């Protein structure tokens, strides 16, 4: 009944809808709580530094970078990079994001298994995310199932990466929320705003995982349909 793009849309539509909704929710929550200043008044960079130092991570640098919500922790260089909207702002949204990224640094310090696995997968994912589909469709075009399977496996690493990312991000947010209250950076009332921002961000990772898995299933359906 369904074929080609119709099959792809059928399989991927739930993930696509969730992805658009999650992105809208993140922007809405961030815009709302970026206008709400914390009572303590610490900027995102100060919060990150406070959390890092309180956990003995004095050697982890905190840098400002361009881009909207381009915040991330780099375990290779031991650097926590915060976007300007987070780095300089004392808002609930900013301190929530900064604490979340600091949570990744703590994961790295403690040897959190899921983070180590995700970091180890980065090189293969960087290749598989673009090379996998190319090999897959070349295999289909040449009517070579073995080659198509190679492409499918390559892309499968990308789907696995998005799944491994989920516990990493959920754990970092859980750590961030606890640390912000324990360190007295936000009150329990203010934590509601932090929850709104971080919970919305978590949805984007869920959507990304579902999208990658649905694409993998679509490729598998095509390949299975070509069996003699």
Describe this structure in words.
Helix content is 72%, strand content 6%. The two termini are 20 Å apart. It is mainly α and 228 residues long. It has a 3-stranded mixed beta sheet with strand order 1-3-2. It has one domain (10-225). Helix 4 packs across helix 6 (145-182), helix 5 runs antiparallel to helix 6 (145-182) and helix 6 packs antiparallel against helix 7. The longest helix is centred in the C-terminal third of the chain and has 38 residues, at 145-182.
State which percent range the strand residues make up.
5-15%
- Strand-pairing-aware structural class: mainly alpha
Instruction: Describe the strand arrangement of the main beta sheet, using strand numbers.
Output: 1-3-2
Please work out how many helical segments DSSP would assign. 7
Uncertain residue ranges: none
Shape: elongated
Helix content: over 70%
| SSE pattern | HHEEEHHHHH
In short:
By secondary structure, this protein is mainly alpha-helical.
Tag the structure with descriptive keywords:
228 residues, mainly alpha, three-stranded mixed β-sheet, 7 helices, 3 strands
């Amino acid at each position: 009944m369904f074929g080609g793009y119709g099959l792809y849309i059928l399989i991927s539509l739930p993930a696509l809808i969730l992805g658009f909704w999650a992105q809208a929710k993140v922007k809405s929550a961030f815009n709302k709580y970026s206008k709400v200043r914390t009572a303590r008044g610490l900027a995102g960079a100060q919060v990150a530094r406070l959390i890092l130092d309180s956990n003995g991570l004095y050697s982890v640098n905190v840098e400002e970078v361009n881009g909207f919500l381009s915040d991330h922790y780099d375990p290779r260089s031991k650097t926590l990079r915060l976007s300007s909207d987070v780095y300089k702002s004392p808002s609930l949204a900013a301190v929530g994001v900064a604490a979340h990224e600091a949570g990744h640094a703590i994961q790295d310090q403690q040897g959190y298994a899921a983070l180590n696995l995700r970091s180890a997968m980065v090189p293969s994912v960087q290749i598989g995310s673009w090379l996998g589909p190319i090999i897959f469709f070349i295999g289909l075009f040449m009517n070579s199932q073995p080659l198509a399977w190679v492409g499918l496996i390559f892309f499968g690493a990308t789907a696995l990466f998005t799944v491994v990312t989920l516990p990493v991000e959920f754990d970092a947010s859980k750590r961030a929320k606890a640390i912000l209250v324990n360190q007295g950076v936000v009150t329990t009332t203010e934590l509601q705003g932090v929850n709104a921002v971080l919970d919305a961000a978590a949805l984007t990772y869920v959507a990304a995982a579902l999208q990658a898995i649905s694409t993998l299933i679509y490729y598998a359906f095509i390949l299975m349909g070509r069996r003699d």
